[in-house]
Design brief:
Helix content: 40-55%
Radius of gyration: 23 Å
Number of helices: 11
Structural class: alpha/beta
CATH topology of the largest domain: D-Maltodextrin-Binding Protein, domain 2
Family: Belongs to the UPF0065 (bug) family.
Strand content: 15-25%
CATH architecture of the largest domain: 3-Layer(aba) Sandwich
InterPro entries: BUG, Bug_dom1
Number of strands: 10
Shape: globular
Organism: Pelomonas lactea
Keywords: Signal
Protein name: Tripartite tricarboxylate transporter substrate-binding protein
Order of helices and strands: HEHEHEHEHEHEHEHEEHHEH
Length: about 325
């Protein structure tokens, strides 16, 4: 018995001497945004990083890993150490990429831990400032008269604006010359400079340009009208004659597969707090984004939603014979 007590005391002394396991997080967290700095997803990422900082108790560092429609950044996170220190903020492209690309370096539904949805962002159809059209009806006439001459900008192959542009061409049944850029910012710069004609992009990137009158705005590509500022005057695509056209760009948060459940739970709890942060809500509202406040904030519902989006977008993209590679 005395020997047993001695062994127990010795074990307790040994455990007491070991350094305490660090509680997550004990160092900065990298949030990978798979697009260039200055674009709409980058704006959401930077706002979210600030909102997550307090509930997580850690610095959040944004790392922009642009290229190949967001797949480079997504792959970096899929291959990262599953310790919670490398996270991914991605948009609808994580779902559309499964159809846009013949091969992907990761499995969308298997190689990530789903942490929860963040927001939904309406798309807007805009044009160069000197485009001879002031309404969607005017634009439709101009497009019909300029078939084969229209330049449609996007933020890169596989981007949200690329997807919207592809679906828009299908809806109007007019082929356009698509001009891919390395991000939304350079695409917008050329639109402002009248180097390209039109672009379909997120309100996170177009609101300021629309409200300042620097671009022509023709429609919001979602099923409901927006309610703020100059955007409230925009008709929906459906109202403009594109019946059933409804596209919003949603954002979600992800971690590498195998990240410990305790870490996932802590990040999800922090995400829920961030989505209720008054400053974050104000910033998102100013960009026309709608914060997700339903069951999709939960990991399981988030993953279920992404799977449904894959099933919805895949047939449309494949039927059109559209591939990014």
């Amino acid at each position: 018995m005395r020997t047993s007590f001695k062994l127990a005391a010795s074990l307790l002394a040994t455990l007491a001497a070991l350094p305490a396991l660090a509680e997550y997080p004990d160092k900065p967290i990298t949030l990978v945004v798979p697009f260039t700095a200055g674009g709409p997803t980058d704006k959401v990422g930077r706002d979210l990083a600030e909102a997550l900082r307090k509930p997580l108790g850690a610095t959040i560092i944004i790392e922009n890993v642009g290229g190949v429609g967001g797949t480079l950044g997504a792959n970096k996170v899929a291959k990262a150490s599953p310790d919670g220190y490398t996270l991914l903020l991605h948009h609808i492209g994580i779902a559309s990429a499964t159809a846009l690309y013949r091969t992907l370096p990761y499995k969308t539904l298997e190689d990530f831990e789903y942490l929860g949805m963040v927001n939904e962002v309406p798309m807007t159809l805009i044009g160069r400032p000197d485009l001879p059209a002031n309404s969607y009806a005017d634009l439709a006439k101009w497009m019909a008269a300029n078939k084969g001459k229209i330049n449609l900008a996007n933020a890169g192959v596989g981007s949200a604006s690329h997807l919207c542009g592809l679906l828009f061409q299908q809806a109007v049944q007019i082929d356009m010359t698509t001009v891919p850029y390395k991000g939304t910012a350079p695409a917008m710069n050329d639109l402002l400079g009248s180097q390209v004609d039109i672009m379909c992009d997120q309100t996170t990137n177009t609101t300021g340009q629309i409200e300042s009158g620097k671009v022509k705005a023709f429609a919001v590509m979602s099923s409901k009208r927006l309610t703020s500022g100059a955007l409230a005057k925009l008709p929906t695509a459906d109202e403009s004659g594109l019946k059933g056209f409804n596209l919003t760009i949603w954002h979600g948060l992800y971690a590498p597969k195998g990240t410990p459940k305790a870490v996932l739970d802590k990040v999800n709890t922090a995400l829920r707090a961030a989505l209720k942060d008054a400053d974050f809500q104000k910033r998102q509202a100013a960009l026309g984004a709608v914060i997700v406040a339903d069951g999709r904030v939960a990991p399981a519902e988030h993953k279920k939603f992404v799977e449904a989006e894959i099933n919805k977008l895949g047939p449309v993209i494949k039927a059109a014979g559209i591939y990014a590679d």
